[in-house]
Specification:
seven-stranded parallel beta sheet; 262 residues; alpha/beta; 15% strand; globular; 7 strands
Length: 262
């Protein structure tokens, strides 16, 4: 299927590895030009080189910056102002016990995982509406639907973003102009983030990381962890011309782990 995004410009955050890279890679392979952002310059450059190799002919601009800061966002928009596709993504806050989190911890989590995506939406959405095409995908978490007790900072901040998107994504002046906003909710994917969480669980339980990973894997009906490539493919479809009638949705990609009906 031709997704109809060849020649479009996409901004993908947290794109040096993991799910963000999977999204940038998939979009570029569909012919979209990409501006990729991440904090680590070397890893970002390696990601850019891989995308250029796998998607010859597309433009790839790498911006080493912290997208959760004003300076980081200015660096991105200094390279390019208008985008047809925006994929928001920032590293999730650390797990822990809510008794230990102070106001600063909460503000940091909300700033990165709620307010930063809102700032990116605000900066790009009017231009999308004027041009008659726009796709915004926020990478959030399956914990929005099934909260995880040790990820309270993430549960709270990402749920706040979900509530905001539920309203603005249904604005008639946006949807009628072919601008959509959706959230993509990953479950357990084989990423550094998952391994970091599992490492913490292993230390707490006294088990090995392999034992903890295996215990998590067998709880998933698919009996495996997801891959960044398949996550990226789902993102690319939500950004496609064919997805113009999908907005305000929380698309769960978790191998069947969520047990609910709705």
């Amino acid at each position: 299927m031709d997704l109809g995004i060849k020649g479009k410009w996409a901004l993908v955050c947290g794109a040096s590895k993991g799910l963000g890279f999977g999204c940038a890679h998939a979009l570029a392979r569909e012919g979209a030009n990409v501006v990729i952002v991440a904090r680590t310059a070397q890893a970002l450059q390696e990601a850019a080189d891989r995308i250029r190799k796998d998607a010859p002919g597309v433009e790839v601009i790498a911006v080493p910056a912290d997208i959760t800061t004003v300076d980081g966002r200015n660096a991105v928009f200094g390279k390019r102002r208008d985008f047809d596709i925006v994929v928001t993504n920032a590293g999730g806050p650390p797990p822990g016990d809510f008794h230990d989190w102070n106001r600063e911890d909460w503000v940091k989590a909300i700033d990165a995982n709620m307010l930063t995506p809102i700032e990116l939406i605000k900066a790009t959405i009017d231009g999308m509406a004027e041009r008659g095409f726009g796709r915004i995908v926020n990478i959030t978490s399956g914990a929005v639907k099934a909260p995880i007790s040790t990820l309270g900072l993430s549960n709270g901040a990402r749920s706040g973003l979900t509530g905001f998107v539920a309203g603005v994504a249904r604005t008639p002046s946006l949807v009628s102009r072919n601008v959509t906003i959706n959230n993509l909710l990953p479950g357990a994917f084989d990423t550094d983030r998952l391994r970091g969480t599992m490492t913490g669980a292993a230390k707490k339980s006294g088990k090995s990381i392999d034992e903890v990973m295996e215990a998590r894997r067998v709880q998933i009906p698919a009996q495996r962890f997801g891959t960044s490539d398949e996550f990226g493919a789902t993102c690319a479809f939500l950004c496609s011309a064919q997805a113009g009638y999908i907005t305000g949705q929380n698309v769960l990609t978790d191998g069947g782990a969520y047990p609910g009906t709705y």
